[in-house]
Design brief:
- The structure is a single chain.
- This protein is an alpha/beta fold and about 700 residues long.
- Strand 4, helix 8 (about 200-210) and strand 5 form a beta-alpha-beta unit.
Length: about 700
């Protein structure tokens, strides 16, 4: 006879371990038979577990008190409708789990998949199926307990204390015989405990019970964590049945969002416009690349309805007839009534009570049929929600942002002088990417800027970032710092075994916090060839993997690299012709530069750039425009002290003549203007003993620039 299903007095005790199962059915084949000759042979192991269960009871434990202290009864939550609401999809995964749990030797399914793909929700739904009896007979009496590993580790100072807790849990589950332990984030078993002495205590304690088949578990973890934690421990991993939770199709994701919508609507008291489902999916896919479906779509949905539900709080008059608006009014009236009673203003309290009863009546009867007065999500709120998550203005561009995109070419030409052809190419590439005419698995644009120093390569990258993403979304990496093979650790983090491993690198931090940015890798030819190989995957697939196995997503970034390779082929009078069919001097010069490029870079890397742009040399007529830009920069600084100035034609000619350098390009212009104009202005201010509020003229005297007060 089954020792755990016998009709003894002890087994009928309400404090017994097995009666804690709300789904435990009675055994129709069980008979009252006191004849010991007909009893089944006693199992010594089961007798020991029975004795242990009794000792737990004698210590004052309630029904499954040990498991309740360290976990949560998922069957109980499922019966109350607290979990697995609106679950859909993953039917094939559920089928595989049920089949695995019915196995004799390895009834321990482990769900392996990306974070946010729904592994925990699958287990919750399985608990719901068990609680409703919609599972095979072998599983109908099972109870799933979700065990919190942190609760077990908490308060343990020594290895023995941790082992005692683990044995208490496992023996309690084994004694009950119908309990399945669910470990979310299963890989944490490997490092449960703070000290090295506690490493693998959990796994070692579970190996024996799992091997005997008396303990059953369910786990959930990611592919990377599973390999790190269990690939080398075959004695543990061979007791587990790995079930891959793959990515869902678009149709399945939309179905999940739609089914979950009712849950969020009930919570927020806001209706979600089902016409926006496709918009939620597309925006989440494009602008939240570092998270996975369906979690990120449901996060967007939650934020949308949160924002809509809070609108009456910020705009009471505009939403006073909505459900949420009336709820807010009701809360305020109740507070006023309580205050009036406390101050013994009973007449006022009576009036407020009448208003409260009226609003309560409207809330109870007025919104079952009057859905038009219920808050409904708007399209703008969808954009705003994704914008808040991704921290990017181009999700929901304002009129100003739209104008920047529309006038991108003009704005760049205003800031970068003499590079009209390069700007045309850049603007066309960015505008095409902005409106979705691009491969979703590549960066928005990948470009290589070639030319002499001081021609505006870095400046164009900065201005592009300002016009597309904002001034803060620009990151520059000087590749001269990566001239050795080992210096890759500066870019992608330290290698395993070195100081700083598992710490974020500057590149990782930048792309994680600002996925919508311009990344400039300056003077790429100075980097070690092995470093350049790291960029192959970045340019081709928009991803790069760090040394600690973290994949960085650059599909929403603009990648720009600059180089001075082949600049000696440029001549002062060269005209760049980027059309391959052209036979002009510019085309010949460009071909020579590209030939020089092949001497420094591998063909497979060169072929991965969307555009290779050769910058023109700065000409004399361009130099005056550049001087004007630098003078305007100084004027902006002077506005704080109300210092203004103008420049005479003679002074302008002198500045252009002396600042222009064929070797240094525009860099020398900025240096010359800032040095000499600042010197002239400061000399006059000292002479006049003033600090602000002055209008000046920059002129020439004795072949030197001077400042004159008007």
């Amino acid at each position: 006879m089954d020792q755990f299903n016998s009709d003894t007095d002890d087994d009928k005790d309400p404090d017994s371990i097995t009666t804690g199962n709300p789904n435990q059915p009675s055994d129709p084949n069980e008979k009252d038979n006191d004849d010991s000759s007909n009893a089944e042979p006693t199992d010594p192991t089961l007798e020991k577990l029975k004795s242990f269960a009794g000792s737990v009871k004698k210590k004052g434990a309630k029904n499954n008190d040990t498991l309740d202290n360290f976990g949560t009864n998922l069957n109980y939550l499922a019966k109350g409708g607290m979990i697995a609401q609106g679950f859909s999809g993953r039917e094939e995964i559920i089928r595989k789990m049920i089949e695995t749990m019915c196995n004799r030797d390895t009834p321990n399914p482990i769900l392996v998949g990306n974070q946010g793909c729904g592994k925990t929700e699958i287990v919750h739904y399985l608990a719901k199926l068990i609680s409703t009896g919609a599972v095979p007979d072998k599983l109908k009496d099972k109870v799933i307990y979700s065990i919190d590993i942190n609760d077990i580790v908490a308060g343990t100072m020594y290895r023995g204390q941790l082992e005692e807790k683990i044995q208490t849990i496992t023996k309690t589950a084994m004694a009950a015989r119908n309990v399945i332990l669910f470990f979310d984030e299963l890989h944490m078993l490997r490092s449960a405990g703070d000290s090295s002495e506690s490493q693998n205590v959990f796994m070692n304690a579970l190996k024996g019970p799992l091997g005997s088949g008396m303990l059953k578990i369910i786990g959930a973890t990611s592919e990377e964590e599973f390999e790190v934690a269990f690939s080398k421990d075959l004695r543990f991993s061979r007791r587990l049945k790995k079930i891959q939770v793959s990515d869902l199709s678009k149709q399945d994701i939309l179905k999940i969002i739609e089914n979950k919508t009712n849950v969020y609507e009930e919570f927020h008291k806001v209706k979600f416009d089902r016409n926006h489902l496709e918009l939620v999916y597309s925006l989440a896919e494009r602008f939240i690349p570092d998270r996975f479906f369906p979690e990120k779509a449901l996060t967007v949905l939650d934020i949308i309805l949160t924002k809509e539900s809070l609108k009456p709080f910020y705009d009471t008059e505009g939403h006073k007839d909505t459900y949420a608006g009336l709820q807010l009014q009701l809360t305020k009236l109740i507070e006023e009534k309580d205050k009036a009673i406390a101050e013994e203003e009973f007449t006022k309290a009576g009036e407020l009570r009448s208003q409260i009863l009226y609003i309560q009546y409207r809330l109870e009867t007025g919104f079952e049929t009057k859905e038009s007065k219920t808050l409904i999500s708007s399209k703008d709120t969808v954009f705003t929600a994704v914008k808040d998550i991704s921290n990017n203005d181009i999700v929901n561009p304002t009129i100003e942002t739209k104008e920047r995109f529309k006038n991108l070419r003009t704005n760049l030409m205003t800031s970068v002088i003499g590079q009209n052809e390069a700007i045309d190419k850049v603007a066309s590439a960015i505008q095409s990417a902005k409106y979705g005419i691009k491969d979703k698995n590549k960066p928005l644009a990948t470009m290589l800027f070639l030319g002499k120093t001081g021609t505006g390569k870095t400046l164009l990258a900065k201005k592009l970032a300002e016009n597309v993403f904002g001034s803060k979304n620009f990151f520059k990496f000087d590749m001269s710092e990566y001239d050795t093979e080992i210096s890759s650790s500066k870019l992608l983090g330290s290698n395993p075994g070195f100081v700083g491993y598992n710490e974020s690198s500057p590149l990782q931090t930048a792309i994680k916090n600002n996925p919508f940015s311009v990344f400039l890798f300056d003077e790429i030819e100075k980097a070690h060839p092995k470093i350049l190989d790291l960029f192959l995957q970045l340019l081709d697939e928009g991803r790069i993997t760090t040394n600690n196995k973290v994949t960085l997503n650059f599909t929403n970034a603009i990648i720009i690299m600059t180089s001075n390779i082949g600049s000696h082929h440029l001549r002062k009078s060269s005209k760049i012709a980027l059309d391959p069919s052209s036979r002009s001097t510019g085309d010949q010069t460009r071909n020579k530069i590209i030939e020089s490029l092949y001497d420094h870079m591998r063909p497979e890397m060169i072929n991965r750039f969307d555009e290779i742009l050769v910058f023109n040399e700065i000409k004399n007529e361009d130099c005056k425009k550049i001087v004007d830009l630098e003078l305007n920069y100084i004027r902006e600084i002077g506005k704080d002290k109300n210092i203004t100035f103008s420049v005479t034609d003679g002074a302008m000619d002198k500045i252009v003549k002396e600042s222009f350098s064929e070797d240094f390009g525009a860099r020398n212009v900025r240096r010359y203007v800032q040095k000499n104009i600042n010197k002239a202005i400061s000399s006059l201010l000292i002479q006049l003993d003033v600090e602000d509020n002055i209008d000046l003229i920059i002129d020439i005297k004795n072949n030197e620039l001077i400042a004159i007060s008007k």
